[in-house]
Every structure is written in structure tokens, then in C-alpha cells.
UniProtKB/TrEMBL annotation:
PANTHER family: RIBOSOMAL PROTEIN S9 (PTHR21569), SMALL RIBOSOMAL SUBUNIT PROTEIN US9M (PTHR21569:SF1). GO terms for cellular component: mitochondrial small ribosomal subunit. It comes from the Eukaryota. The keyword Metal-binding does not apply. Belongs to the universal ribosomal protein uS9 family. InterPro entries: Ribosomal_Su5_D2-typ_SF (IPR020568), Ribosomal_uS9 (IPR000754), Ribsml_uS5_D2-typ_fold_subgr (IPR014721). Keywords: Ribonucleoprotein, Ribosomal protein. Residues 421-435 have a biased composition (Basic residues). It holds the Pfam family Ribosomal_S9. Residues 415-435 are annotated as: Disordered. GO terms for molecular function: RNA binding; structural constituent of ribosome. This is Mitochondrial ribosomal protein S9. The keyword Signal does not apply.
């Protein structure tokens, strides 16, 4: 009877530890030696590429026995709480150390730039870093920066379980409790609006659209994915979840679902009842910096009216307009009223459009002087001049912001294209005939 000896060989590569128990015999055949060499070569190549080590047939028969955890449930919970408190303590210590380093670097940078450290804010820090370390790197994340540690390091999550180990949040096991809390609240708001609408319709006590209050959403927009994640303190999915070959329900786009639900609330006739909830998740639009400076209005000592004079141009038509507030709605254009100066309805609507947008229809007096010929061009020139006057007279939220969003403060610099020789008009070609 042949004796057999058992040896254990341990191979480790890239944190991959595999134990293979091989049986060494006194006589190996050539086929067995070649097979073993090929197996070890493949194992070495796979571990170098980052794949987990493949278990052998012998290692499956010999498993390392696991040590059972004999601690009680309360002991496990106490251990978890201690580990959490230790992690929080380490995080706070790290943040405090980084904060001291940031303040030291901020003061030193202020001395380099010749600034007062007490007034050296984050905006000046960014300008100094850009000046001292000019970088041509395309990605902003790769450029040098000096920011507070709270903006660099992710915030540590708070303890989500009580002393007994039970989750504090009712949606803890959904993996995204804060996101689904927002979704549930939005669904409750939508159902409440539907219930109010049904009650009014059944009772027929009043017309729900009579005193309807429209939501002003032109200056705000919905949170982006990053803003929503920052607001709820949780990551939001916007990509495919699961394997590459999956069914339709495996595609989860949480951000798109949230947008659809919020838009349904906004489109409801009674959306003004949920105005407070809606504006929790809307951010002010980033407007393009208006390079044009509007003068301050003057005060008439006789009538005690504020007035401002501005100019407008469209093609070869020029308009000089003076707007006074408060007024009675008088419109004087070269000594004529609006109907005499502009017989066409479309031109009169163009002139009155800025007043309708800002809610000053019938509340201001307008006096205009025109030069140039045409029908629509003089009306557009007067409209531009009136818009510029209202941007100076009214508050920013009521005047300039609404006029900017409506495009009434943008001058139209287009001119008619010249006629080309051999063509009927600037672009129109004559009808082509074969013969």
C-alpha cells in the first residue's frame, strides 16, 4: 500500500488568498505533471488580471470551519453602536484637523496676496488660486483648489437605529429611505389636490377656477440630480440597474420618476395649494449677467411722478419713449393716440405686451417720438424702449426678471437681406424649366 503525504500550498496575488490542498504522491505520471503545471499557470494569469482565484477540486472537499458568534443580540447592537461612535469621533477629529490646516493656509495665502485675512473670503481664495496656479487642465476636478473640509469630505451619516437595533426610518429597508419619503409626500400632495377638486365639483359650491392663483415658475427650475441628492442627503439612481440583459421593470430612473410626479402636481388646477411643497425643490435659474446698465428714474417735482427716458431701434426706425409712473394709461405717439398711430391690431399688441407682462397695463403714461418708415419696425422699436423704461422703474423681480425671461430686453439686430441679381428675391430662385 502506497503512503500519501498531504501538503498545503497558499497562493496570494492582489489581496486574493486561495488555499489549495494537493496530494503529493511518490510517483506522478507525465500527464498529471503537465496538467498540474497548466492549472498553476492559468491560476497565475487569472490572479494577475484581477480575477478571483478559482477553487480546485481538492479545496472544495476541505473547508475552513467558521467560528460561530456566541454573543447575544444586545451585545452585537452595543458593539455596532460603539463602532459607530468611534467612527464619528474619528471623522470629527479629522474634520477639525483639516479645518485648522485650511485656516492656516487661508491666512498664509492672504499674506501672499497682500490682503486682510479677516476679509479674505472664499471668492478671493478661488481668484488667488487661479492667479498663482494657472492650469490648462480641462476637468475642474483636476485643478488646484483650497476649500473648507466640509465641502471636500462627504458628511458622515447619522445613526439610523435605536438602542434595540430597530431602524428609525420606516422606509429603511428600501435602500433609499429619504428619496422614497419625498416620493410618498409628493403622492400625498397630489391625492389631496385631487380630493379637493372632486369635493368642489360634487358640491358645486364655487367655481374653482374663479379665484385661481397661478404659480410663477418662470424664474425657477426643478432641482438637478446633484441638487436633489444634496437636499435629501442620499444618492439618486438615474441609470440602468441589473444585468445587461434585463426586463423593462429592471430599468430604474429615480430622478425621472420624481420629475414626472412633480410636474403632475404643478399641472393640476389647484397647484397653488401645494405652493410651499413645490418651491422646496425648485432653484432660481442662473440668469445671464445683464451687461446693460439701466439708469435710475428721476422724480418730477410738479406731478411727483417717477419718469425715465429710453431709446429703441428696429432696422432703420428709432423711438424715444418717456414712461411715467403712476399714471392713467395715456399713450401719446407723435401727438396721436395708439389707434391712430398703429391701425393694425398686431402692432398695438406688440406695444402693450411689456405692460401686460409686468402688470402695469393702465398704470403708466407713455409718450413716444418716432423716426423712420414702416409698420412693424416702429412698433418693435417702441416696444423695446418701453421695456427698457419699465426695467428701470419697477423692482427687479417684477420688472427686469420677467422682461428678461420674455425676451423683451433683447434688441433685434436683423436686417432685410439684399436682393441678388438673377433671382426674384434674396433667396428665391426663378422656376426652373427643362426647355
Amino acid at each position: 500500500m502506497r503512503t500519501q503525504q498531504t501538503h498545503t500550498y497558499i497562493f496570494s496575488s492582489r489581496n486574493t488568498l486561495t488555499t489549495s490542498i494537493l496530494t503529493e504522491r511518490t510517483n506522478f505520471s507525465l500527464v498529471e505533471i503537465m496538467g498540474l503545471s497548466l492549472h498553476l499557470f492559468r491560476f497565475h494569469q487569472l490572479t494577475l488580471r484581477g480575477f478571483p482565484a478559482l477553487p480546485t477540486a481538492c479545496s472544495a472537499a476541505y473547508t475552513v470551519p467558521s467560528i460561530p458568534d456566541t454573543r447575544s443580540k444586545s451585545a452585537k447592537i452595543q458593539s455596532s453602536i460603539k463602532l459607530y461612535l468611534k467612527r464619528i469621533h474619528n471623522y470629527e477629529s479629522m474634520i477639525e484637523t483639516e479645518r485648522e490646516d485650511f485656516e492656516r493656509g487661508r491666512k498664509y495665502l492672504a499674506q501672499i496676496m497682500g490682503e486682510d485675512p479677516s476679509t479674505f473670503n472664499q471668492e478671493k481664495i478661488d481668484q488667488s488660486i487661479t492667479y498663482l496656479f494657472p492650469s490648462g487642465l480641462f476637468s475642474p476636478k483636476a485643478r488646484p483648489k483650497l476649500k473648507p473640509p466640509e465641502e471636500i469630505f462627504p458628511k458622515e451619516k447619522e445613526l439610523q437605529c435605536d438602542s434595540a437595533g430597530r431602524p428609525l426610518h420606516s422606509l429603511f429597508y428600501t435602500r433609499y429611505p429619504h428619496f422614497y419619503s419625498v416620493m410618498n409626500e409628493a403622492a400625498y400632495q397630489l391625492e389631496a389636490l385631487k380630493e379637493d377638486w372632486d369635493t368642489i365639483y360634487i358640491n358645486k359650491s364655487q367655481n374653482p377656477l374663479k379665484n385661481r392663483k397661478d404659480l410663477v415658475l418662470v424664474t425657477t427650475e426643478w432641482f438637478t440630480k446633484a441638487q436633489l441628492e444634496e437636499a435629501i442627503g442620499e444618492s439618486v439612481l438615474d441609470e440602468q440597474v441589473g444585468s445587461s440583459v434585463c426586463l423593462l421593470h429592471d430599468f430604474i430612473f429615480q430622478y425621472d420618476q420624481w420629475l414626472v410626479l412633480m410636474n403632475r402636481i404643478v399641472s393640476h388646477p389647484l397647484a397653488h395649494s401645494a405652493e410651499k411643497f413645490i418651491f422646496q425643490y425648485r432653484a432660481r435659474q442662473i440668469q445671464v449677467v445683464d451687461a446693460e446698465k439701466y439708469p435710475d428714474p428721476e422724480l418730477d417735482p410738479v406731478t411727483q411722478q417717477k419718469f425715465i427716458t429710453s431709446y429703441g431701434q428696429k432696422r432703420r426706425c428709432f423711438a424715444e419713449v418717456c414712461v411715467r409712473i403712476p399714471g392713467t394709461g395715456v399713450v401719446d405717439i407723435d401727438g396721436k393716440n395708439l389707434l391712430e398711430a398703429f391701425p393694425l391690431m398686431g402692432n398695438r399688441e406688440q406695444i402693450m405686451f411689456p405692460l401686460h407682462v409686468t402688470g402695469t397695463l393702465g398704470k403708466v403714461d407713455i409718450k413716444a417720438k418716432l423716426s423712420g418708415e414702416g409698420t412693424s419696425s416702429p412698433a418693435n422699436a417702441v416696444r423695446l424702449a418701453i421695456s427698457r423704461c419699465l426695467a428701470s422703474l419697477l423692482p427687479d423681480q417684477q420688472g427686469r426678471q420677467r422682461l428678461l425671461v420674455s425676451g423683451l430686453l433683447t434688441q433685434d439686430d436683423r436686417f432685410a437681406e439684399r436682393k441678388k441679381p438673377g433671382q426674384k428675391k434674396a433667396r428665391k430662385k426663378p422656376i426652373w424649366k427643362a426647355r
